[in-house]
């Protein structure tokens, strides 16, 4: 059971969003993804490096991260692959799982959202709302029609 003081500390968290491709920040996101997907949910995403959920798409994606300003801890992440950035990988990640051929007929810009996760201690409305608000801003700023 949590105390009112503990609830007050949690609700008073200062969180910041950031869009990054910085290798150190991306690695922190990969560590969080591994922690959530592999350790917490026991998913095998094919990690080649112990403790990192990394793949070829990470280098071409924009990584949206949420950081707790008081602790410096990265607490949430998602990656976005904009159609204009596909170059080196030549496809969306989802194309390995689904037939995306119908998307070729869409008029407009597409972006793919993936590997979204939130640290267990931060799974609340505030963190998730902040993350989705930043995704919405990204989509508007990059003129994305379809996600």
Q: What is the CATH topology assignment?
A: Aminopeptidase
Report the biggest beta sheet as strand number plus sense, adding barrel if it closes: 4 strands, antiparallel
Low-confidence stretches: none
| Architecture (CATH level 2) name | 3-Layer(aba) Sandwich
Strand order of the largest sheet: 1-2-3-4
Q: What is the molecular shape?
A: globular
Computed over alpha carbons, the radius of gyration is 16 Å
How are helices and strands ordered from N to C?
A: HEHEEEH
Number of beta-strand segments: 4
Gap between N and C termini, in Å? 39 Å
Mean pLDDT: 91
Q: Number of DSSP helices?
A: 3
CATH superfamily: Gcn5-related N-acetyltransferase (GNAT)
Description:
This protein is of the alpha+beta class and 147 residues long. It has a single domain, classed as Aminopeptidase. The chain is built from 3 helices and 4 strands; from the N terminus they run αβαβββα. A 4-stranded antiparallel beta sheet has the order 1-2-3-4, with helices on both faces. It is globular, with a radius of gyration of 16 Å.
Which features characterize this protein?
147 residues; alpha+beta; Aminopeptidase; globular
Summarize this, please?
Helices cover 29% and strands 20% of the residues.
Topology:
Elements: H1 4-11, E1 15-20, H2 23-40, E2 62-68, E3 74-82, E4 111-118, H3 125-141
Antiparallel strand pairs: 1-2, 2-3, 3-4
């Amino acid at each position: 059971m949590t105390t009112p003081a503990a609830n007050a500390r949690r609700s008073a968290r200062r969180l910041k969003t950031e869009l990054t491709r910085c290798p150190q920040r991306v690695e922190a996101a990969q560590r969080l993804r591994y922690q959530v997907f592999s350790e917490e949910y026991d998913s095998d995403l094919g990690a080649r490096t112990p403790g990192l959920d990394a793949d070829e798409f990470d280098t071409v994606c924009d990584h949206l991260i949420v950081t707790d300003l008081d602790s410096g801890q990265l607490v949430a992440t998602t990656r976005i692959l904009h159609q204009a950035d596909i170059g080196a990988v030549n496809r969306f990640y989802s194309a390995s799982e689904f037939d995306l051929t119908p998307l070729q007929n869409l008029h407009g810009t597409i972006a793919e959202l993936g590997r979204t996760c939130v640290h267990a201690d931060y799974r609340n409305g505030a963190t998730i709302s902040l993350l989705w608000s930043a995704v919405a801003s990204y989509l508007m700023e990059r003129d994305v029609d379809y996600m």
